[in-house]
Amino acid sequence: MTATTLLFRDDAYAPSCQSTVVGVTPEGGVILDRTVFYAQGGGQPGDVGALLRGNGDRIEVTNTVYGPDRSQILHLVGPEAAALLSAGEPIELQLDWERRLKRMRVHTALHLLSVVLPYPVTGGAIGDGDGRLDFDIPDAGLDKDEITEKLNALIAQDAPVTERWITDEELDANPALVKTMSVKPPRGSGRVRLVSIKGIDLQPCGGTHVRRTGEIGTVAITAIEKKGKQNRRVRLSLVD
User: Which of 39, 140, 195, 204 is buried most, with the most CB atoms less than 10 Å from its CB?
Assistant: First the structure.
């Protein structure tokens, strides 16, 4: 079985790439040997965009997900469109880049939010220009304006965002790196990807991020909701 090479892990800013069809599924998933499309997971939606064939046909990708064993990525195009493709066919992938960039900005902003509110994270989601984190906070009293101010102050530092890998054993020796209670870092490959915001934050993450916090732009905390006795949902949005 040919595993899909995840180009977005090395360059989240690549909007397109050349690839080759490995196979298709009856449900309408296209398996490629390499991809710039992020597969749904960790609260981040799967990328959308298009597959461009050599004859000029454009096939819309409505979602991107992992296959059953997570070594391959499925680009969902529907059964009829998938049936047009055959193994070995060269394909060009084109991301809906505007949507991806918004998700990257929101994702990095949520990492900063976990610094402003240093509580265990019980859930989260990334949208197209907005997102939210759920926190295990025994006592409420959160102020939207105060959180917004602190968050934008961190963004204004324009800190570089980088990634590196550590072994499973290194992560086990540093359990405090994991802030999320509901989503655990993927295991099985023997190593875990860390996303670092220089001087501010370090945590396991497989998602896509901007290169510097300044690229996030101004954000606002739009709502703080009570979701249980000790659970607070904090929503943010890109101002632009």
Answer: 39
Q: Which amino acid is at 168?
A: D
Residue 15 has a CB neighbour count (10 Å cut-off) of: 15
Same structural domain for residues 73 and 191? no
Give the residue carrying structure tokens 């916090």.
Answer: 213
Q: Whole-model pTM? A: 0.91
* Residue 229 CB coordination number (10 Å): 6
User: Using alpha carbons only, what angle is made at residue 51 by residues 55 and 207, rounded to the nearest 5 degrees?
Assistant: 160
Asked if residues 209 and 160 have their Cβ atoms less than 8 Å apart, the reply is: no
Paired tokens of 2 = 């040919």
Residues 138, 90 share a domain: no
Let me know: does 41 contact 66? Beta carbons within 8 Å: yes
Residue 90 structure tokens = 């060269």
Average pLDDT, the chain: 91
Range of the domain at 209: 99-238
Domain containing residue 112: CATH number: 3.30.980.10
46 and 106 part of one domain: no
